[in-house]
Amino acid sequence: MTNLQILVVKAHPHDFTHSAGTLGIHTDKGDDVTLVVVTGGKKAHNEKLATELLKPKSEQDPNIINEPPEKYAEQKADELRQAALLFGINDVRILDGGEPFRVDENPGIINELSEIISEVRPHILITQSPYINGSGPHGLIQPYVNNSHTETAYAVERAQLHSSNPEHGSQIRPHKIAATFYPGVYFDRGDWDILVDISDWYEQRVEAETLFKSQGHNEAYARKRIEISCGAAGWTAGTAYAEGFVRSKPEVFDSLTLSPRTLQRAEESPAEHINRVTGTKT
Ligand SMILES: [Zn+2]
Q1: Distance between CA atoms of 89 and 97, rounded to whole angstroms?
Q2: Ligand 1 center to residue 149 CA distance, Å?
Q3: Could you tell me the distance, in angstroms and rounded to a whole number, from the CA of residue 261 to the centre of ligand 1?
Q4: What is the architecture of the domain spanning 5-248?
Q5: Which protein residues have a CB closer than 5 Å to ligand 1 (ion)?
Q6: What does the pLDDT look like over 68-123, one tens digit per residue?
Q7: C-alpha count within 13 angstroms, C-beta hemisphere, residue 282
Q8: How many angstroms does the Cα of residue 12 sit away from the middle of ligand 1?
Q9: CA neighbours within 13 Å on the CB side: how many for 235?
Q10: Ligand 1: centre distance to CA 35 (Å)
Q11: d(CA 2, CA 243)
């Protein structure tokens, strides 16, 4: 098999980090990753501004209050590029999908995504979940409903359809993507199909999280977040840190197949297991 082409399409810059450890493993193996964000995140997660606006007017920092959204977007683009580099990703593309992104208001994004699919010809697509999953307190629908994340998922679905079934007059070279994965963070843990052991990428995940200063992150917060998110996924996987994924459809094999990791977990001693979960080198 030749190197894998992996296309990642996310709504906002920070969203790619949820599967970044897995992407690092692939770039290390020589696979190619193209990272696309549909919006620059100009209006999302401006914690610095929110913090400033909570202060009395006389104590507010005018530099933060009057910062143009373009400058904030530039900072986010820089943070995204730096974070992507930690995982060996150089090909980063920021589209202008408008914010909040609504595919029916910006249908041009579908064509842009189709062109990217046709150019990159990915074997694997990692993108936002199109499913409306779970409910919040008192059945309140969570903010993932009808927001930029799900809208990105719908745009990607339509772009895939375009790429695989070109219409008359289309210049797009057809391409079918072999497998689509959604990051596990958008699902309940019981829905995960695949867990990737990212224990060797824990520090890069913390560093990437810390890089998003525009979202108010610092190292203590980053470490806590990765400990509880990748740590909980690792606990489920029987390893130190992991990233979960949900497949868009079942994969076809020639026979029942076990990964070496699955066998290792069954065959290792309890002491070896504890050392692996705690990241203790023996
Ligand atoms: Zn997001």
Answers
A1: 22
A2: 6
A3: 31
A4: 3-Layer(aba) Sandwich (3.40)
A5: 11-12, 15
A6: 778 888 889 999 999 999 999 999 999 999 888 999 999 999 999 999 999 999 99
A7: 8
A8: 5
A9: 8
A10: 14
A11: 24
